[in-house]
Amino acid sequence: MNNLVKILIVFASWGLVFSSCSHADEARSHILKVYNWADYIDEDVLAEFPAWYKEQTGEEIRIIYQVFDINEIMLTKIERGHDDFDLVCPSEYIIERMLKKNLLLPIDRNFGKTPDYLKNVSPYIEQQLDKLSQPGRKTTDYVVPYMWGTAGILYNKKFISEEKVTSWECLWNSENKNKILMKDSYRDAYGTAIIYAHVQELANGTVTVEQLMNDNSPEAIALAEKYLKLLKPNIAGWEADFGKEMMTKGKSWLNLTWSGDAVWAIEEADAIGVDLGYEVPQEGSNIWYDGWAIPKYARNVKAASYFINYLCQPDIALRNMDAIGYVSAVATPEILKAKVDTTITKISDLSYFFGPEADSVHINNVQYPDRKVVERCAMIRDFGDKTESVLEMWSRVKGDNLNTGIVSLIFGVFGLLFVWLVYQRIRRYKQHKRFHRRRRHW
Ligand code: N2P
Q1: What are the tens digits of pLDDT across the range 354-395?
Q2: Is the beta carbon of 241 within 6 A of some atom in ligand 1?
Q3: Fewest beta carbons within 10 Å, which of 82, 291, 331, 381?
Q4: From the CB of 40, is ligand 1 less than 6 Å away?
Q5: In a domain, 229, yes or no
């Protein structure tokens, strides 16, 4: 995370602490509380919103901005903490959960004189998110797609060949002992393990990636646990957001990560002569979608809706993409034009996203996955009440060594205590007997 964002966060937290004193009179309608992923917006875009909002509505707004790097942390704050964030940015399986639990408010598309830029979002991405709709609640009435991408392998070409990363096998290969940084995202790790455990069935066409990644049967959980434990010797660390920097510095060989982080890392590394690549393995992977949503406890739906509208303008979307590396869900001809780069030799089919004219374009294919890549990926779904068992498995996997150590220590101490107590009992019993025998003799 760069310094400006850190400063923004510090200001934001001060804002939270002091809002009750120094801003005592500030109406909540002049505050917008945004809770977003770290490194997920251009800082100037964020800073310029109050002026834009004033222009559109004549009203003042001050942003309180906080960041998270794990979906579940955000969800807990809303679901359990009832925090009054006006905008959050969950991923698809959390969107589904929030819709199921009725935790969201509809987006207010009443923008007055301001055009409705939400129309700029790709219909393809909307269709995908609408698969998560719940009875009486259509996803896209509650959520506006923001960024999307794939999960795959970012690798250092100095140590790993492109051919090796075409299969998830490379993560399990003992050649890569202690050389992998894993994204600290339990659903990505789970999906990857289950996919790899079924390489043969996938090749035979007897199962699909979608079925595998969303299988939460006890057998699947046990299988994922087995494969994730087998992976552990190769794991150098779990990262929430620092993997891209480590890779840029050439500190690790492989990183299971998201496409946007890969784009950012590849560009940064290139500037300092480190050659990184990104691949979505042949077996298939996760394709994910993050969207803006207004939680039930929000207190400024108007500003939240305007903020989403502001982000859907093509120039703003382009600035965000350039700053963070991820792909915006906004898919207008201006964006396609700005993103086409004829120095890229590889041709990709992006017609599913931009429309028929984009069926063979020269475009960064890490950022914008080709149709073939999208076809071998699937979206992850909410695990509902099975989430708990998967999370338990996940903590067994991650805390394996520590837990076994602590458990053996506890057993060891109690074991010794027990032996000592039994010994004392026997000793006292013997003494007692001896005493009585002697008394009888006296
Ligand atoms: C950016 C996080 C991206 C979120 N730091 C991917 N779902």
Answers
A1: 999 999 999 999 999 999 999 999 999 999 999 999 999 999
A2: yes
A3: 82
A4: yes
A5: yes
Cα(39)–Cα(18) distance, integer angstroms: 25
Inter-axis angle of helices 71-79 and 92-100, nearest 10: 20
Q: Does one domain contain both 261 and 298?
A: no
pLDDT tens profile 224-283: 999 999 999 999 999 988 899 999 999 899 999 999 999 999 999 999 999 999 999 999
Which CATH number goes with the domain that contains 296? 3.40.190.10
Same domain, 136 and 156: no
Give the pTM. Answer: 0.85
Which pLDDT score, from 0 to 100, does residue 413 have? 67
Q: Can you give the residue range of the structural domain that contains 144?
A: 3-148+289-345
Q: Residue 410 domain-assigned? A: no
Q: Are 266 and 294 part of one and the same domain? A: no
> Does the Cβ of 71 fall within 6 Å of ligand 1?
no
CA of 226 to the centre of ligand 1 (A): 27
Among 95, 241, 258, 380, residue to substitute to test ligand 1 (most atoms within 8 Å of Cβ)? 258
Q: 179: buried, middle or exposed (CB in 10 Å: 19+, 13-18, 0-12)? A: buried
| Residues 6 or more apart whose Cβ sits within 8 Å of residue 256 | 151, 152, 153, 171, 180, 181, 182, 183, 188, 189, 192
Q: Indicate whether 142 and 159 sit together in one domain.
A: no
Q: Is residue 372 part of a domain?
A: no
Residue 234 within a domain? yes
- Taking the centre of ligand 1 as the mean of its atom positions, its distance from the CA of residue 173, in whole angstroms, is 27
Residue 52 and residue 178 share a domain: no
Question: Same domain for 13 and 142?
Answer: yes
Q: How many A from CA of 355 to the centre of ligand 1?
A: 26
Contacts with 386 (C-beta within 8 Å, 6 or more apart), sequence order: 216
81 shares a domain with 59: yes
DSSP states along 173-222: -GGGTT-EEEES-HHHHHHHHHHHHTHHHHHHTSS-HHHHHT--SHHHHH
Residues 61 and 50: beta-carbon distance below 8 Å: yes
How many Å lie between the centroid of ligand 1 and the Cα of residue 114? 29
Report the number of distinct structural domains present in the chain: 2
